[in-house]
Design a protein that fits this description.
globular, 13 strands, four-stranded antiparallel beta sheet, single chain, nine-stranded mixed beta sheet, binds zinc ion
Length: 442
Amino acid sequence: MDTGGRDTFRSLLSLLTASIASFPDVRRGANTQYSMHDATLSAFTVFFCQSPSFLAYQRLMEQAEGTNNGKTVFGIHKLPTDNQIRNLLDPVDPQHVQPVYRSIFEYLQRHGVVDSFRDIDNTLLVALDGTQYFFSEAIHCSRCLVAHHRDGRVTYSHTALMPAVVKPGTSQVIALEPEFIHPQDGHDKQDCESRAAERWIRRVGTLYSPLGVTLLGDALYATKPMVRLVEEQELQYIFVAKPKQNKYLYEELEAFEKLGELHELSRTQWTGKKHRRLVYRYANGIPLNDGSDPVQVNWAELTIMDDTGKITFHIGFITSYTVTAQNVEAVVQAGRCRWKIENENINTLKTKGYHFEHNFGHGKDNLSQTLLSLNILAFLFHTVLELQDRRCSLLRETLPRRDIFFQHIAALTQYLCFDSWQHLLLFMLTKLKLDDPYQGPP
Ligand SMILES: [Zn+2]
């Protein structure tokens, strides 16, 4: 793998700033472009540094010393107030952030990172998963999903589909552009995850399909319209199938079983403590739905039993792959990789110090969504730096957790002004008595 190396941060930042230049600025007049640049980067730095107080400390440093890390590390010309950030970003549709995701993906393609994520049939596994990231009974905006409850309560929420490239055995995930689930123009009905996924697939399907992509999704995706759409876009899929949601499919499978047409593969595994048995079953060309125009799918399942024969795990999938004794284990392993997105991506955003809306508020229109987009982008920056910047990855390996790495950065940038991101990393390496991976031992 080629390494982008020590220029990675600068490259990523220039992709972000290039994108900001095309953000619409509702105001007219001198220096508006600078202000939009400064407002967007300022919001981004809070997420990147995972520190709600980052901007406040940099404003204090600017007053005391005439310079600050926002300027030297991130290229912010003049630090805006939280209010200015809110007012400038609220009119910006999150769609304007999408090109940054694409240009970072292209950057990762050029540096061989995308290819290193290839898995089943040499494709990229793209996990689709919707997650609610905001809920309130009081605060709301024009993009909120509104729920009227029987007891008269009205609640407001935001949910986003956060697709990511995942790979079995790899802890990092590559975040792709999110799709927001929100009331759509010209539609009476509330939006939902499957409709958002359809929009995302229609928008980017043709972009990603030449690369070879296998979509992963839960049982929500195992429907005729979704399978048709995925096939139309020339993408592969492995979606969870469940007897409750896919009644017709499982009735057909029962008939297959009676005829002895379900294939089976059994494995015994030593867990380090005891033996367990893995039983794979699979079949191809089964109708997913009833009716005149059924969609044909292939099916695979895994049942895990402990040494007493008790079932400890079970999962089933429908897939575009013709399942054979040679690939059934790979199909199931790829399908199960969808859970990585919950562990590595969404949960990191929710629990590992990424701050949603903490100082900028919710906004009237786009703010909540645009901030989330910048927040996921910060997460993507971290992933790329861990993969590509050897100084950064060495520090991350040395410090026990991602949040501790950022606690150190928050504390250091509060007291000291660094010339650049690399200056900051070198300072940390020196103080931790680590050799600079770009220099070798002294
Ligand atoms: Zn809202």
